[in-house]
Amino acid sequence: MPTENDAHDIAALRAFNRVYTTRLGLLNSRLDKSPFTLSEARILYELAHRTDPTAAELARALGLDRAQISRTLRRFAERGLVEAREDPRHGRHQLLSLTQAGRAAFTALEGNTREAVGALLDALPPARRAPVLTAAKTLTRMFEADTGRGVSLRGLRPGDLGWVIHRQTVLYAQEYGWNNDYEALAARILCDFHQSFDPAHEGAWIAELDDRVVGSVFLVRGDTSMVGKLRLLYVEPDMRGAGVGKVLVATCIERARQAGYQRLELWTNSVLTSARRLYERAGFALIDEAPHHSFGHDLVGQTWSLSL
C-alpha cells in the first residue's frame, strides 16, 4: 500500500500531468489540427525516424500492444500513408516505411506540433520559461534508463565556491538537520583552498549536466607532502546512483596519483552512508573513528585512507 509520502508524490505528478496534457491539447480527439490521435501521431513519428522498422520494433519502442499497432498500421495502409515489404533476412517480418503521402502527413503534423509548443513557450515570460525548460530536461533524464548520461566534469568558474558551500549546507540541513556550523567549516576549507591554491598538487571538479551543477569534489594538500586529501564531495539527490559520485572520486584519485601523493585521505561522518559506500568501492579503508559533537548533533567522525 502507498505510504502517506507516496500518496503526496503521486498526487504531485498527477497534477502536473493534468496541467501539461490540457495545455498541449493532448486530450483532444485529434492532435494539433491533424487527423491523428495521440497514439497514431507517435507511431507516425517513429516511422518517420526509423529505417525499415517492423511492427514488433514499434510495439517495443512505444510500449504499445501489438494488436493496437497492427490496427493503426492497417488504417495507415488504407489511407496510403505506409507500405510494407518482406524482410529478405526473415520472411515472416514486414519492413515498414512511409509513402510520399505519409511523409507529407508527418511533415504537416510536425509543423503544427512545433507551432503549438512554440506558442506555449512564447506565452511564458523569460523568468518562467527558463525553469520550465530545465524541469522538462530533468523529467526526461529521470525517466530514461541511463540517468548519468551527458554528465561532464569541468574546473572552477567564478561563483562555484559559493555555490558548493550553499548547496552542501542546504542539503545537509535538509537530510541530517545540521546547522550553520557546517557552512562555516565549508567556507573556511574553500577560502583556504582558494588563497593557497597549488595547481601542481591540488584540484577541483564540478560535475555538470544540462548547464546545471550536480556535484563536486576537491583535492587538497594533506598534513605531509606525501598525503593528499579528498574534500567536500557531494552529489545532488536526484543524481545519486547515476555514477556521478563514482566519476568524481575516481577523478580525484587519478589526479592525486599524478601529483605524486603516496596516500589519499578523507574525513567524513558515519551518517553519510552513500558517500561511505563510494569510498569503500574505490578502495578506501577506515583507519580511525571517534565521536564528536558538531553541526548541532552528536556524530561519529571517520578517517578513510587509500594507498596510491
From TrEMBL:
<dbReference type="Pfam" id="PF00583">
    <property type="entry name" value="Acetyltransf_1"/>
</dbReference>
<dbReference type="InterPro" id="IPR011991">
    <property type="entry name" value="ArsR-like_HTH"/>
</dbReference>
<keyword id="KW-0808">Transferase</keyword>
<dbReference type="InterPro" id="IPR050769">
    <property type="entry name" value="NAT_camello-type"/>
</dbReference>
<feature type="domain" description="N-acetyltransferase">
    <location>
        <begin position="151"/>
        <end position="305"/>
    </location>
</feature>
<dbReference type="InterPro" id="IPR000182">
    <property type="entry name" value="GNAT_dom"/>
</dbReference>
<feature type="domain" description="HTH marR-type">
    <location>
        <begin position="6"/>
        <end position="144"/>
    </location>
</feature>
<protein>
    <submittedName>
        <fullName>MarR family transcriptional regulator</fullName>
    </submittedName>
</protein>
<dbReference type="GO" id="GO:0003700">
    <property type="term" value="F:DNA-binding transcription factor activity"/>
</dbReference>
<dbReference type="Pfam" id="PF12802">
    <property type="entry name" value="MarR_2"/>
</dbReference>
<dbReference type="GO" id="GO:0008080">
    <property type="term" value="F:N-acetyltransferase activity"/>
</dbReference>
<dbReference type="InterPro" id="IPR036390">
    <property type="entry name" value="WH_DNA-bd_sf"/>
</dbReference>
<dbReference type="InterPro" id="IPR000835">
    <property type="entry name" value="HTH_MarR-typ"/>
</dbReference>
<dbReference type="InterPro" id="IPR036388">
    <property type="entry name" value="WH-like_DNA-bd_sf"/>
</dbReference>
<dbReference type="InterPro" id="IPR016181">
    <property type="entry name" value="Acyl_CoA_acyltransferase"/>
</dbReference>
